[in-house]
Structure formats: structure tokens, C-alpha cells
């Protein structure tokens, strides 16, 4: 393959994910994070959407990022004028190319061609880079599509793009289409794939191997319906499987994925490739035994290459080796008999359908090994006030080393406020980072028991603990205080 360009569309197509609506500041933060990955082009939004969207695009342009800043534009002069006003580097000029999509705007192929010519001429006259994109191109007549692309090339478009708008391409057809386009077009060709049938990554790679030199991607595969091609999947496959020399900074992928997930509120599914929580997590005994001898036994790449860490978790399928590794990780010394008893108790909990946190394991081990530790932090009382127009406020009274400490703080909701107040209260003795937060309802109804699990870290050491209560705020506080006490041991 030639040099591969990455166009990240998280802020445009990704924001069209149902339920996502980003503020100006959130869009800027994501743009800055994506830029650290080394992508070549950032599609910052669609200029015709709103005044707020244009304001956000302007802020991104002013940030002076390394990536080319692009905006989605229809073949309408007003869109191009908006793009010029935003001072972007390029436009992603999208026009319908299938009969179905041309009927949507009441145009035929000749009329669309005229729109393209006029728009490209106007954009180029005003100094814009133009990427001409065929909407629903995977269902267009291929000869007509190539004719349109040739017109784009004739009028000095810089790149062309084929959009598989509803994700119906299969790899064999992708190879056929891109091979034919490559024979007819000399400017760079891009693939914009959707994942409706789970083939976006495969189709994108096939396109790159058959003439394309640019791929459109989104962090965590965000996008309409089933989403867009995942940046993390395509880049990892190219780098580690096809041994391509790409500019993406792979070690930053997980951090950016987590940031985007946190900002958008869209959680990554646990079994998601590369960035899912389970991607480098092992529970089954035979797997952990193999990992202990040689990580490549059950891992295709080292987790550090994509900014991850290997995790050994305990549960129903846990083997003795998993328990042994976990206990040694806590610096505990134990005999074979101790290990056997701890292993037995872990299995009993796993058989009851419970996941076993670090805190659970330590509690079991402390019981078996007759260990004890002083709980330096205890909850005395808390109070939370929330409303629908102001931030929630929480006050907290803790017993820390036998002295009462009282603090208050605010948050976007009652749980956030309570955790912020808790962290503020203990800030005098230590700084604790809340890295992960997860809640499950154990039973049904409005009075359901909830199980809150958290991952906390301090001075490079991390621990997972949980709290169970009918009150999600209390369960959250219990989980965090449990972790704090164990990290302070």
C-alpha cells in the first residue's frame, strides 16, 4: 500500500449517533485528543447544521492542530460560504449518486454532475481543498459513478471518496469496485464505510489494498445506526497484521477511546476489539496458565502497544494460577494450603453468579491468612441535594484516622456530587483517582438492589471494589471508601 491517510469523522458522522449532542467545548476537546493520534484529517462537523456547530468548527480551526480541518458540505454555495467563513482547510463535498438518493433531492445524474462542477470550481477558486464524495455510491451505477469522479478530477478536486452509506458492501465487491476506479482515476481515493453488517473494517482494508489511499474512521466506531469504521480496528489491523507503516500513534488509542466514551456517554461494549474492557482480560484457568508462561499464548499483541494493560479477573472459570497471580500482585505470602482454601472460596462465590473484585479477593485472603488492617476512613454521614436546573450538592462527614472531617462539593448529578465531596474530604491525606465506574441492577423495581463497582488508583497502584445497596449513592460511597482503605494499607 501507498501512504495511508486517516480522516476521522467522530465529530461529524460520529456525532450523528443517536443520543449524542456535543457542546462546543466537548467538540474542541475531542478534536484535540484525536489530533494527538496523528490522524491526517479531522472532519470537524457539518457547517449547515447550526450557528453553534459553526462556532465549534471555528474554535477547532483556531486551535492550530496538526491535522487538516475539514467540514461536511453539500453541493450548495451557501454551505461552501459557511465553510469559508469557518476558515477550514477542506470540504467533504457530498452528493447523491444512486438513483434512490438522487430522487431524494429531485435530481438526475446530469443535474448532480452540474452541481458538482459548479461547487468544485467555486471552492477551488476560494482556496479550499476538495474531497468529492459519492453518497450511497455502493448502490450507484459504477460507470456513472466513475464518470462523476472523472469530472471531479477534471475540475481539480483533490480527492474522491466512495461512501458505502448503508453498509451493504461485501469484500469481494469492494475489491472489484476499487480496482476499477483505480484504473480510471489518478487522484487519491477514499473509502467511507458503515458497519450495518459488521463488515466496515474488512471492506475498508480491502479498499486500501485495491487502490484506495485514504480511510474514513470514527473513534469507537461511532456513527449512525451500526456506526462507522472503527479507527482502532483499522489502524491495529494495518499496523500489526499487514505490517503497514502508518502514522497513527497506537499507544494513545485507548486513552482517546476512553475520553470519547466519557464525553459522549456512549459506553464501549466489553468485548469490543482493541478498546473493549475484555480485550486483554483473562478469567479462564487454562488461559491464565498459558499467559503466565507466555502472554502470546492467548494474546495476539502486547496490550501496551495500544495503551492497555493485561487484566486477570476472578470468577466461575478461574483457575488456581489466576488466584496465585492476583495474590502475588498484592504482595501477599501464602502456602499451598492457603492458596487451595482461597481458591475454593473464590469458586464458591463465582458459582453464585457474582464477579469477584480485588476487594473481595483481599477480604477472602485476609480471612484465610488471619490478616487484619485498620480502616482509616469511615463514613459517618452524608447528605445530597439535587434539582433539575442546578448542579447537585453533597456534604460528607468522614472519620479519618479518628478525626471528623466535613466537606461539600457539587456535581452533574447526585452520585457525581457525592464522590466529589468524598474525594475532597480525603484530599488532605491522599489523592485518589477514580478510573472506572460501573453500576448494575441486581433486582427489578424502583427499590432494586444495585451493585456499584469502581476502579481506583493511587501512586501507580490500582484496585477494584464494589458496594451493594438499594441506594445507588450509598452503594457508590461504600465502594469508593472500601477501595480507599485498601489503597491506604
From TrEMBL:
UniProt record, GO biological process: L-leucine biosynthetic process
Coiled coil: none
Biochemical pathway: Amino-acid biosynthesis
Residue stretches making up the Pyruvate carboxyltransferase domain: 4-254
Annotated keywords: Acyltransferase, Amino-acid biosynthesis, Branched-chain amino acid biosynthesis, Transferase
Single GO molecular function: 2-isopropylmalate synthase activity
Pfam families referenced in this protein's UniProt entry, alphabetically: HCS_D2, HMGL-like, LeuA_dimer
EC code: 2.3.3.13
InterPro entries, per the entry: 2-isopropylmalate_synth_dimer, AIPM/Hcit_synth_CS, Aldolase_TIM, LEU1_arch, LeuA/HCS_post-cat, LeuA_allosteric_dom_sf, PYR_CT
Family stated for the protein in its record: Belongs to the alpha-IPM synthase/homocitrate synthase family.
Protein name, entry field: 2-isopropylmalate synthase
